[in-house]
Amino acid sequence: MRLILASQSPARLSVLRAAGVEPVVRVSGVDEDALVASLGDPTPEQTVVALSEAKAEAVEHDDECVVVGCDSMLLFEGELLGKPGTTEVARERWRRIAGKSGELITGHTVLKVSGGVVVDRASAAESTTVRFGTPSDEELEAYLATGEPLHVAGAFTIDGLGGWFIDGIDGDHTSVIGISLPLTRKLLGRLGVPVSTLW
Ligand SMILES: Nc1nc2c(ncn2[C@H]2C[C@H](O)[C@@H](COP(=O)(O)OP(=O)(O)OP(=O)(O)O)O2)c(=O)[nH]1
Predict the structure, then answer these.
(1) Is the Cα dihedral 111, 102, 36, 92 positive or negative?
(2) Which of 35, 49, 72 is the pocket-test mutation for ligand 1 (most atoms within 8 Å of CB)?
């Protein structure tokens, strides 16, 4: 069964490849800010699930395939945080999170396509507690200078340079990276697609 990954994320691609899947990558280009603004007053989980649904729906589907869309954000002190985008925002973000914990929430949507139409779908969010370390000012500036924290949800990675500053997690690490393998397996199972048909 062909899997279409509706994401430009190199992290999601690498998680799937390490798990034996060579997805077809199609970038959705969804305007995430506009979609979130249209949602009214959603919960954090509803927000990331809605974004994952929009991404999966937006990409071109093959006649017979499954499509996976994801969206990750950091829930910290009641605020849902995405990618910082700038060094200043990433620095401020780290000044807030250092030494504390947050929830990295990833929304997942899987579509089953047959005969060129979506015949079934399943969505869910996965939440993982992330315990942040306390980088020194010198370490933080050096990390910011790499650019990595600017382009990832929550301004950190657990499998990259950010790993030095993550004291631990409680939950699924693949979900933090960007796509939960166990949750995706369960969603595919609901659609009657064993993961073993993907590799
Ligand atoms: N390698 C790595 N990447 C992470 C980690 N935490 C978050 N990220 C990345 C995964 C996603 O690429 C990004 C979250 O942003 P989004 O969910 O909006 O996805 P993105 O805009 O990258 O691509 P997409 O919207 O799916 O086309 O942050 C981590 O611990 N490790």
Answers:
(1) negative
(2) 72
